[in-house]
Amino acid sequence: MPRLFTLLLILIGLSACSPKMDLLIKNGAVIDGSGSAAVKADVAIKKDQIVKVGPDLQLKAKRTIDATGLWVSPGFIDVHAHLEPLTTMPNAESHVRQGVTTALGGPDGGGPLPLGEYLDELTEQGIGLNVGYLVGHNSVRNNVMGLVNREPTAEELEEMKSWIQRSMDEGAFGISTGLKYLPGTYAKLDEIIALSKVAAANGGIYTSHLREEGLGLIEAVSEAITISEKANIPVVLTHHKAMGQPMWGKSRQTLAMVDSARAAGLDVMVDQYPYTASHTSISILIPSWALEGHPITEFTKRCEDPVLRDSIRQGIMYNLVNDRGGGDLRRVQFSRFNWKPELEGKTLYDWAVSEDLEPNIKNGADLVIEAQLHRGANCIFHAMDEGDVKRIMQYPFSMVASDGRLSTPGQGHPHPRAYGTFPRVLGHYAREEGVITMEEAVRKMTSLPAQRLGLTDRGLIKEGNYADITIFNPETVKDEATFEDPHRYPRGIEYVIINGKLAVDGGVFQNVLEGRVLRRPGFFH
Fold first, then answer.
1. Total structural domains in the chain?
2. I need a labelling partner for 10 at 20 to 30 A (CA). Which of 47, 133, 138, 391 fits?
3. 502: which strand partners?
């Protein structure tokens, strides 16, 4: 009897000492991010880690979430995010409520310099999701050379290389280019290769807003593949698309080019957003030579010369017909227009009509000039084809990425991707259209981007990984934001867990700052 009593005391003591979980997710269908089918399992979280995954876990927890009828996924990773407002919108609500737990900033050649100081500032202030950054070629070139259209001197090239090296030393995941934007559009191939070699030597990747996404798309893809080969660097063709009606269907050729590059041993991938409209500055319609020096002051001087102004007009007309204009002024929609805020949400066609102008391409070009003379505008360009969107989405090495800017209701008329990218892929394209399976959609949002970034401890529901988890209802998840009414949060995203803490709880945003600044693998601060 004394022995039995002693054994009972030991068992009671062991039970009392067994670690209590912080969170226990019960009865959900775990879709682990690998592309495998969902399986019924429970997930236990202690502090910031997933400590146990298995069926019917009998564990004590401070909080138990009943995920019956829900899918338990790794948190979504956005490999192309415009995080510029993060210091003023640190909770990143428009991203977190989509299920995004990690985002990569500094795309399209932009991004903060010096990078290390900025990352330290984010760490100090607190952020609502995990973030990493690329170093932007445009930022570096502008810092060294300004907005000039020429090749760098040997000294300038070395200075740019030193900025890339410094940024990599400070934790950048790689280098981004925006070869359609100033001043990247003035850079030749050799310059990009030289700078990419610095990033490659430090384990970085290369992502590119291609030099052209319309009529010059094929040549631009070829250029990016050449950079991968010559710099020996992994490449992402970011927000991959075929802009303008003359190029619709050309994704067949571009994806075949990526396949050929991969077959030759190059590490080339793509990412995309699930919409048939892009979003950028209206200045993208203007020939780059007209913006050299300064996109407002120097542009204004050139427009004062009737010959130059006519040449600028002709270039804009060409782009309105063959590129982002889609051949119809109704395809150019204003998202932010400080000079004429009443036009936000309306189109270039609407503006022409309001000015009693015939809504033709020539008058549209003149209005584009007027907009730029008054400090520009941001626009949504409805100039892509649904067939290309679906084809790129089905490509095995394509990732989901928003290209969305952190947004908050009441500010401008943004592209709906800022609120709806990830739920749109799950709800519209996977569940409703069957373009890809739900499991494949999750893979493209989780393990595939984690692999691209070298994040070995995120992107999978796996014991020992960080507890970044999104729990959604597969029957109801869907984007609600539209081009007409973009400031709408999605539905069906029930819980979002970031580093073990609830950021969305039962569909309610918690306004917490549990994110972390991530630096490239191998970085030591």
1. 2
2. 47
3. 497
Give the separation between CA 379 and CA 49, rounded to whole angstroms.
42
Structural domain range at position 137: 74-279+388-456
The position carrying tokens 């029957």 is 475
Write out the chain's pLDDT in tens, 525 residues: 455 454 444 444 444 455 799 999 999 999 999 999 999 999 999 999 999 999 999 999 999 999 999 999 999 999 999 999 999 999 999 999 999 999 999 999 999 999 999 999 999 999 999 999 999 999 999 999 999 999 999 999 999 999 999 999 999 999 999 999 999 999 999 999 999 999 999 999 999 999 999 999 999 999 999 999 999 999 999 999 999 999 999 999 999 999 999 999 999 999 999 999 999 999 999 999 999 999 999 999 999 999 999 999 999 999 999 998 888 999 999 999 999 999 999 999 999 999 999 999 999 999 999 999 999 999 999 999 999 999 999 999 999 999 999 999 989 999 999 999 999 999 999 999 999 999 999 999 999 999 999 999 999 999 999 999 999 999 999 999 999 999 999 999 999 999 999 999 999 999 999 999 999 987 765
CATH of the domain at 191: 3.20.20.140
Q: In Å, how far from its chain's centre is CA 367?
A: 30
Question: Same domain, yes or no, for 375 and 393?
Answer: no
Pairwise CA distance, residues 448 & 68, whole Å: 27
Give the strands of the sheet with 100-105, arranged side by side: 76-78, 100-105, 130-133
Q: What does the DSSP 8-state code read for residue 323? A: S
Query: What is the enclosing helix (H) or strand (E) of 230?
Result: helix 217-231
Q: DSSP assignment, residue 20? A: P
Rounded-to-integer distance, Cα 406 and Cα 329, Å: 27
Closest Cα to residue 380, out of 346, 409, 351?
346
Q: What is the DSSP string of 457-504?
A: TSSS--TTSB--EEEE-TTT-B----SSS-----BSEEEEEETTEEEE
Give Cα 264 to chain centroid, integer Å. 27
103 three-state secondary structure = strand
Q: DSSP letter at 114? A: S
235 contacts: CB under 8 Å, gap ≥ 6? 205, 206, 207, 208, 224, 225, 227, 228, 266, 267, 268, 269
Q: Is residue 228 part of a domain?
A: yes
- Judge whether 127 lies within some domain: yes
CB neighbour list of residue 297: distance below 8 Å, 6 or more residues apart: none
> pTM for the whole thing?
0.95
Give the separation between CA 285 and CA 183, rounded to whole angstroms.
15
CA count, 13 A, side-chain hemisphere, 388: 28
> Which amino acid is it at 164?
I
